[in-house]
């Protein structure tokens, strides 16, 4: 059932009558000689699942004695190259590499830390930690604590544990709602620790009921309280946790809208979401986008991007709504 749901909710699924050896040869032909057949590359790679792309990669190396990703990088450039490399990377490795990139060098890209750690499942986070250590040569928690501080760091570390409570604790719903109210709107100053503990440890199902109880108690949405009580990256992280507890597809629809509907396109965010959600919940994200903004995600991407990069993103989107 989970497998069927995945097929239904993702815009990219396993290609029927898949032949890794044949696909490897098609890619080889697209790259050999003078010039590159970008259309073949983008149409083939966006219509194969990530597992199938890994098989193509292995078949290419067996047939031609070289790495397919290196060959693609030597033929492509710009945003299209970055997107193709992302498509060729296993999902957990991609998340780990994005986190590593966000942490290394001068400055930290807090938005990437927030997006990935707020939206991934507990099981995915545990896998990311293992792959990060193996492929990025470090401990993710150590790298995060070295680059962040204060309450923002504390909530990130709690999310990194990947150990949210399971199910709904009926006896705690009202209690949690009252504690959140008392920690924020109900007092002068804010008991941030209480927010962090509840938002970081309760299951999404439980949190949704707590947020309903909170609204009945205070008359406000929990987001209003967070915006009134916190600022900066802590506010952004708490809001992301709340939004993902309510609806992960709606959270990504909002992020996609933010990456495009302003002066200049945030291509890194746009690309990261389109790649990482294409086999997970892209159909749901598209439906949320249409409902929230009255526009098709496909048309919005089309208006905001160009060239082979834009075409590839449209294939990942999977159609108009």
Automatic annotation (TrEMBL):
GO terms for biological process: negative regulation of coagulation. Gene3D superfamilies: Annexin (1.10.220.10). GO terms for cellular component: cytoplasm; nucleus; plasma membrane; vesicle membrane. Pfam families: Annexin (PF00191). Keywords: Annexin, Calcium, Calcium/phospholipid-binding, Repeat. SMART domains: ANX (SM00335). GO terms for molecular function: calcium ion binding; calcium-dependent phospholipid binding; phosphatidylserine binding. The keyword Calcium applies. Coiled coil: none annotated. It comes from the Eukaryota. Belongs to the annexin family. A pair of annexin repeats may form one binding site for calcium and phospholipid. This is Annexin. It comes from Salmo trutta (Brown trout).
